[in-house]
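In response to reviewer comment 3 from the previous cycle, which asked for concrete evidence that the modeling workflow produces usable outputs, we include below a single protein chain processed end to end. The sequence was submitted unchanged, and the resulting structure tokens are shown without manual editing.
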Amino acid sequence: MTPLLAGLALLAQVAASTQYGYRFPLPAGFADFPEAAATNADIVQCWSESAPAAASGALIMCVQRLHGTIGREGVRQQDLPPGAKLVHYKWKTFDIDGSRTDTVESGNAVVILAAQVPLRGEAVNLIVTGPQDQSSRVEAIMTATLAGFEGETNWLTSAERSGRLGNIAGVAFGIALVVFAMRIWRRRQQAA
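The workflow returned the following structure tokens.
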């Protein structure tokens, strides 16, 4: 394969869903893994490392639908299943909630990271899992994937919230000014 074709193949490694409104570059070495999506109706897409980087096994990444939007109030530790720990991730300018679960599956120690991405139409969980001895790679894949994760959100940025607050304050000031002017006009009418 020529270097140009190899470069184009890397550019083509993009995960996207028009239904859920997201797009992100797949980590190098990840390929479609439909078998994982077939086990759970809420899984939208899954990918796995084609060639595991460690003898302990491959990393797997999935997108799971959450059946609605999420607000900014945040997840509490007591809302998580037993064994899960509340963690936070950065997505765009937002701090988003997630979880980390260290568990055993089929006799193997694994780590499962999940991050709730507040997409406009329906929020999704980005899930990255792998062998416990690969937890630093699992975390790096999560962080890198969120950095490239694109999609419209129902959350406002700080600047957008400030702008809306400024607009509300401006409208309130304008109404107060009109009321004040009407009172002065009425007083002048009554005095005349």
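The chain has two domains: 3-148, 156-192. We consider this sufficient to address the reviewer's concern, and the full set will be provided in the supplementary archive.
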